[in-house]
Amino acid sequence: MSDLPLIQADRAVPPPAATTSTGGRRRRLRLLSRTDRVVITLMVLVPLLLVTGFVWLPAAATVLLSGTNWDGIGPLNEIEFVGARNYSDVVNIYPPFVPAIQHNLLWLAALFVVATPFGMFLAVLLDKELRGSRFYQTALYLPVVLSLALIGFVWQLLYSRDQGLINAVFGSTIDWYGDSNVNIWAVMVASGWRHVGYIMLLYLAGLKGVDPSLREAAAVDGASESRTFFRVVFPVMRPINIIVLVVTVIESLRAFDLVWVVNKGRNGLELISALVTQNVVGEASRIGFGSALATIMLVVSLVFITIYLATVMRENRE
Amino acid sequence: MSVDTPVRRRKLTPLRMLLHGFLIVVSLAWLFPIAWAVLTSLRSYDYTAANGYVSFGGWTFDNYVTAWRTAEFGQHFLNSVYITVPAVLLTLFLASCVAFVIARFSWKLNLVLLGIFTAANLLPQQALLIPLFRLFTEVPLPEFMSDSELLYDSYWGLILINVAFQCGFCVFVLSNYMKALPRDLYEAAMVDGASIWRQYWQVTMPLCRPALAALATLEVTWIYNEFFWATVLMRTGDKFPVTSSLNNLRGEFFTDNNLVSAGSVLVAIPTLVIFFMLQRHFVRGLTLGASKG
Predict the structure, then answer these.
(1) Residues B119, A51: Cα–Cα separation, whole Å
(2) Are residues B27 and B80 in the same domain?
(3) Which residue in A125, A160, A275, B42 has its CB near the most CB atoms, within 10 A?
(4) For residue B94, what is the domain's CATH number?
(5) How far apart are CA B239 and CA B198, in angstroms?
(6) Residues in B 235-264 with any Cβ partner in A closer than 8 A
(7) Residue B226 placed within a domain
(8) Residue B52 domain flag
(9) Is A25 helix (H, G, I), strand (E, B) or coil?
(10) How many angstroms separate the CA of residue A39 from the nearest CA in chain B?
(11) pLDDT digits (tens, 9 = 90+) for A215-261
C-alpha cells in the first residue's frame, strides 16, 4: 500500500506527462543528470522507508492482527483468522473497556469544553498588546515544555494524601491519585494545565496573522470588541480553529504518560492507550484484544488526521 | 488611528485594570505548581514531616544530592543525550531531504508524500506498539552496537523510532518554509551547473537556518520528554533515558515527596534552560506548524 508512492516517485524523475508542461519545466527536468536522479531518489527513499517500516506497516499490521488469535509469542505461520471475535470479546468480556471509552470521552469533553476555549480566550486577551504580555505568555506556556510524565510528579506534590498541599490546606484526606472516584478528574486538571498553554500559543499565532484592516473596518462600523471577534475574526480564523480542534481530539486520544506514571492506567484511570500497552507489556499479553483496541484508536485518529491534512493543505495551496 | 493609539494605551481604564488583574491571577496560578515543586525540593523531609508542608523553614540542598545519587541521574542524563542528539540531527537531515524534493519540484505525488509523512506524526503511538514490539525483538544487532543484541532494549532502536515519528512534523514545516524561498535561486544555481545535492546543501539549507533552529529546539524538547517508546522498548534499568526513568524512582522515593520534587526539578532543568534561552525558537517552531509562518 505504502510502497506505491515511492515507486512512482522514482519513475517520475524523467519528465512525466503529469507535470505542468511549460517549456521551462520540461527543460529543467531534462537537465537532471543521472547522478541527480539517484540523489533525488535516495533523498526521498531513505526517509520514506523509515517512516513506512516503523509507522505505516506496523499500523497496517495492527489492523490485520486484530482479526487473528495470535498470542504474540508463537510463530507467525500459526496465526488463524477469527473474524470480528476480538472486537466482540473486547466489548463483552473485557471489563476495563467500557470505563476506558468513557474516560477517553470525558477527557475529550474536558479539554474541548474547558481547556481549549480557555486557551483561546487567553490568546484573545493577550493579543491586545498589553504591557507585561510577555510575562503572562511565558507563565502560561511554561508547562508546555515539561513532559506529561514529569507533570504527573509535579502534581503529586499537590495531590498526595499525606504530604500533598491540597489536603494540608483544606484538611481533607482524599487520595487524589488513588481514589477511583476522583483520580480521573485530578489527572485531567493536570493535563488541562498544559493543554491551555499549548492552545493559547497556537491561537495567538493565528490571531497575529489576521489582517488588521479587518478589525479596523469593523471598529469604524462601530462594532463592539466581542462582536468584532465573533463576527469577523473568528470566521477568518477557520483553519486555525480546525487545527485547534484536531489537536484537542488527538491529544485526548493519545493521553497516556500521565495515567501511566500514576498507576499504569488502572483503578479509575483506564484509557484505551493504557489498555493497549497493558496487553502487550503487561503480565497477561493478549495480542488480539490489544490489536482490536489499537485499531479502534487508529480509525478514530485517521478520521481527524484526514480533516487536519485537508485543512492545512488547502491553506498552503492558497 | 496611529496617532491616538499610544495615548489610549497609556490610559489605564478600570476595564484594563480588571484585565491585568485577571491575567496576573491566572499567570501566578499557572506558575504555582512549578514554584511549589522548587520550594518543596529545598526543604528537609524531617522538617516538613514535623511541621507540615504549610510552614516555613528547613531549608537544605540535601534532597538534590540524595536524589542525584539514589536515582543515578548522571547515567540517565547521559542516556538521554545518547538518544536525543543523534535522533534530532538525523530527523532534521532526513526531513530536510524530503522537504527539499517536495518544495523544489512540483510533482503531483509530492502531496501524497507530504501526507504520508505528516500523518505519521499524528498517529497514536500505542496503535503501532504490538507489531513494533515484535519487530524490535526480532531484529538482531551486533553485540558492539547493543549488549541486548536486539533492536529491543537498545539506543539504536529508540533513536530510529523517534526519528521515524518526528520526521513528519519537520517535513511539513520545512517544506512550507522552502516553498517560500525564491525560485530564481535554483535557476541561478542551474546556470552555474550546480548538482541537486549542491542546490540542497549550499543553496537551500543555509537559507533554512531559522526554521532549522526552531525545529531543533522543539525536537530536542520533544525527544528528551519522550516517555512511551522508552518505557515499552527498553528493559535494562540503567539504559533508560531520564524522562522514563522517572517511573522507577517512584518506588525508591515513595514516602518522601521532597525527594520526588528534587528529582522532578532535576529532570525539568534541561527543558527549562532551553525554554528560557531559546524561547523565541521554541515558540516559532510550534507556530510554524500551525500557520504559514
Answers:
(1) 10
(2) no
(3) A275
(4) 1.10.3720.10
(5) 39
(6) 243-244, 246-247, 250, 257, 260-261, 263-264
(7) yes
(8) no
(9) helix
(10) 7
(11) 888 888 888 888 888 888 899 888 888 888 988 999 899 899 999 98
